[in-house]
Design goal:
This protein is an all-alpha fold and 66 residues long. It has a domain of 45 residues. It is 24% helix and 0% strand.
Length: 66
Amino acid sequence: MASIPLGSDVPWQRVINSRGTISLRSGSDGHNVQRGMLESEGVVFDERGRVDLDRYLWTGPGLKRG
């Protein structure tokens, strides 16, 4: 997120790390807010707090994975 230009319309809550987890400290207010927002959008977390990147990873506009 640090490299995103100021004023960008990237929805911050959708940015997770390469392990499929939220980077904010687990249990922190920010972590809980981000997870809640993602879950309200239908994102499913496993028992280790990870999301399936094969299912949810966005590769960019018009790009296809694989």
